[in-house]
Design a protein that fits this description.
Pfam families: DUF1203. This is DUF1203 domain-containing protein. The protein is α+β, with helices and mostly antiparallel strands. It has one domain. It contains five helices and eight strands, in the order ααβαββαβββαββ. It has a five-stranded antiparallel β-sheet, with helices on one face. Strands 2-3-4 form a three-stranded antiparallel β-sheet, with no helix packed on it.
Length: about 200
């Protein structure tokens, strides 16, 4: 679909993912199924929309062509097109994405200075995407930040989830339920902790 040269140089998010993805995937299997199945029906998780992905595969939100990256023997990078993880030696695309800007175009929000552009991985060709329900397994990990926004696009609050792999700690579902308990919250983004990379969007339904 596009033809940039492959680039093996990792992005900050890629460095973090390769260091932690294999250990996270092993530990995710130990999480109680009951904890994985919990879901709050006041919100839904969304991957990047197919129409937006089509645009990003040509020119991203920073005005650049996508950068192709060939995975190493571990893979495991989070893919925002389907909320899964990359496979070993798979070719994926690194693009810049502005989640609040895209959301604002749909809803009429005005995030202003809160609108950010950052690196995300997607499949370079159309994939099956993700439609739920619940929380995608590819989003789960050891440390996550939940960032809440009002309908106007302003940051309202957040929640640090320090250890999602420990049965004694809050899950993503519990963190989201807490934030959506505030009726002013219209959307919550899930991000990685160390580099702040955007992982997924949730919206009130």
């Amino acid at each position: 679909m596009f033809g940039p040269e492959s680039d093996g140089a990792p992005s900050p998010c890629q460095v973090h993912s390769r260091r932690s993805a294999s250990s996270e995937s092993r530990q995710r299997a130990a999480i109680s199924p009951a904890r994985l199945d919990r879901m709050d029906e006041t919100y839904e998780m969304r991957a990047i929309a197919p129409a937006v992905l089509k645009q990003l595969r040509i020119t991203d939100d920073a005005g650049n062509a996508p950068r192709l990256v060939v995975e190493d023997e571990e893979g495991g990078n989070p893919l925002r097109c389907c909320l899964g993880r990359s496979r070993p030696h798979e070719t994926i695309a690194l693009v810049s994405y502005a989640p609040l800007r895209r959301w604002a175009r749909e809803t009429g929000a005005t995030p202003g200075p809160y609108s950010e552009v950052g690196p995300v991985f997607i499949h370079p060709e159309e994939c099956d995407g993700w439609t739920g329900p619940g929380i995608a397994d590819g989003i789960r990990g050891q440390r996550r930040v939940l960032r809440a926004y009002t309908a106007e696009g302003n940051i309202l609050g957040g929640r640090l989830l320090n250890d999602l792999l420990n049965d004694g700690e809050p899950t993503i579902e519990e963190g989201l339920a807490e934030l959506y308990g505030d009726p002013r919250v219209a959307a919550v983004h899930v991000r990685a902790v160390e580099f702040g990379c955007f992982l997924a969007e949730t919206r009130r339904v």
